[in-house]
Design brief:
elongated, mainly alpha, 88% helix, GTP cyclohydrolase folE2
Length: 34
């Protein structure tokens, strides 16, 4: 249940937080580009 709750939290937080968690490099790229 904890894992599912965490997934829901990520979706609730937003795509930015999700991207940062799933792929830090992607987040860094987006941050550097934007």
């Amino acid at each position: 249940s904890l894992h599912s709750h965490d997934a829901v939290s990520i979706l609730t937080e937003g795509p930015t937080f999700a991207a940062s968690t799933l792929d830090p490099r992607l987040f860094d790229t987006l941050f550097h580009t934007g």
